[in-house]
Write a structure and sequence with these properties.
With 87 residues, the chain is mostly helical. The protein has one domain. It contains 4 helices and 2 strands. α1 crosses α3. It starts with 5 loop residues before the first strand and ends in an 8-residue tail after the last helix. The mean pLDDT is 92. The chain binds FE2/S2 (inorganic) cluster. FE2/S2 (inorganic) cluster binds next to loops.
């Protein structure tokens, strides 16, 4: 089983990146500039984008840009639900 939890080019975990993004209120571009993540091979880019949308920091499958669009859309949809409509 895959266990994808970091940018291997910088050895930054998604958990560390999540904390940095939250602490400094960074979007993907700003987080990338601040950490260097996504600026090497770029393979971590879809994972970081999904992490920023969902809070997820460990992935067990490969993600594509299509997956990113779907996950971001789902996260936005879920955040707009009221507690009553989520049940
Ligand atoms: S894995 Fe993040 S830039 Fe290569």
């Amino acid at each position: 089983m895959l266990h994808i939890d970091r940018c291997v080019c910088t050895d930054c975990t998604f958990e560390e990146l999540k904390e940095l993004a939250a602490k400094k209120n960074l979007d993907f571009r700003a987080l990338s500039r601040a950490s260097g993540c996504g600026m090497g091979c770029g393979l971590c880019t879809p994972y970081i984008k999904v992490m920023l949308a969902t809070g997820e920091t460990v992935f067990t499958e490969m993600l594509t840009e299509a997956d990113v669009a779907r996950e971001v859309r789902n996260a936005k949809s879920n955040s707009q639900r009221t507690p009553e409509s989520a049940t």
